[in-house]
Amino acid sequence: MKFATPRCPTCQQLAAGTLESISGRADLNVEEDGSADYSGHTEVFWDEQKTVMDDDGRVTLACPDGHEWQSSLEGGAS
Question: Quick check: is 28 in a domain?
Fold first, then answer.
């Protein structure tokens, strides 16, 4: 793949990655009375991972400093 805007518009660093959306199940410790606490473990459903895209089909990139911006893919995804 090739990004039309590979550099962060804020700090000019190259993209470190794409913003992704994933689902997961945060495990609980549930008591008989209904009270619960998080166990500290989350089961991540990696098969549901999707790249975050805007309404125009541009991917969301992020630089090492955490800035985010949208970029189109040149020549389509590969």
Answer: yes
